[in-house]
Design a protein that fits this description.
Radius of gyration: 17 Å
CATH class of one domain: Mainly Alpha
Distance between the termini: 45 Å
Helix content: 55-70%
Order of helices and strands: HHHEEHHHHHHHH
Largest sheet: 2 strands, antiparallel
Number of strands: 2
Structural class: mainly alpha
CATH topology of one domain: Four Helix Bundle (Hemerythrin (Met), subunit A)
Shape: globular
Strand content: under 5%
Length: 258
């Protein structure tokens, strides 16, 4: 069994989908998973037509056992968010963008988006959250961050699976900082420019760099090494910024065939 497959998604009291506010400890794990996947669809991190990883791969990415995952997938299928395809894989359905777009993601139009301003903000918020996480995280939270970082090695050629895990990894860092307001801001910043990051994650080599950097951050957090953690997450953000910039340039050169 996967080391995290204990039907426990993060610490009790976390808001797993980033909806602003604590959850009840008795909330079923399947409901937490369903809300988390729905949150990724709403933000655009998962798009119509995206084929989700296998149940086994998703269980690794989300750190849960398969029974509650199946319940969550079934609930999302009934809601019309997912549809089951041949072979047992699920795909995101073609839902109305007006219902799914996240408010924070809608605050900037493509014409107004400034990647340097965006990553200036992430540099301030994400780095501080990692610094606080290094100081405040519980032993259990540190162990989960490290496991998620290493689990990324299973998704080096699976961009969709990696995006699921990447979301979990950054949420785990945010949770370990024990600052709900900063974590909420970080989630909003994470959801900006997802179209470009989706393209970037499919470029050979980009995921492997991110996974190695996740491990560097996680090992520094495990060691309570504040200075090393800050340096590692700064390098990671620079990598994400640069790969996003290249993807945006590619998008600008590609004719819109819609």
């Amino acid at each position: 069994m996967h080391p995290l497959a204990s039907d426990s998604l993060g610490a009790i009291g976390e808001d797993p989908a980033g909806f602003g506010g604590p959850i009840l400890a008795r909330q079923p794990i399947s409901e937490q998973v369903a809300r988390r996947i729905l949150g990724m669809v709403k933000s655009g991190n998962l798009r119509p037509g995206d084929r989700l990883p296998t149940e086994a791969q998703m269980a690794v990415a989300l750190g849960i056992s398969r029974p509650p995952l199946r319940e969550a997938l079934k609930a999302l299928t009934i809601m019309g968010v997912l549809e089951s395809r041949q072979g047992g894989r699920y795909s995101v359905t073609d839902l109305s963008p007006s219902r799914l777009v996240a408010p924070f993601n809608a605050m900037l139009s493509v014409a107004e988006y400034d990647i340097d301003e965006h990553f200036d903000c992430r540099q301030i918020v994400d780095v501080e959250l990692v610094r606080l996480c290094t100081i405040r995280a519980t032993p259990e939270e540190r162990s989960r961050i490290l496991r998620l970082a290493h689990d990324g090695q299973a998704f080096l050629i699976d961009p969709i699976g990696f995006r699921l895990l990447d979301y979990e990894f950054h949420q785990a860092l945010n949770a370990g900082a024990h600052n709900t307001m900063l974590a909420t801001v970080a989630l909003g910043l994470y959801d900006v420019a997802l179209d470009a990051r989706r393209i970037a994650s499919a470029v050979p080599g980009v995921i492997s760099v991110s996974v190695a950097q996740h491990i560097e951050v996680a090992e520094a957090v495990m060691a309570h090494d504040e200075e090393r953690a800050v340096a590692a997450v700064t390098r990671h953000l620079e990598h994400v910024r640069d790969s996003t910039r290249r993807s945006m340039a590619q998008m600008a050169q590609t004719p819109d065939r819609s």
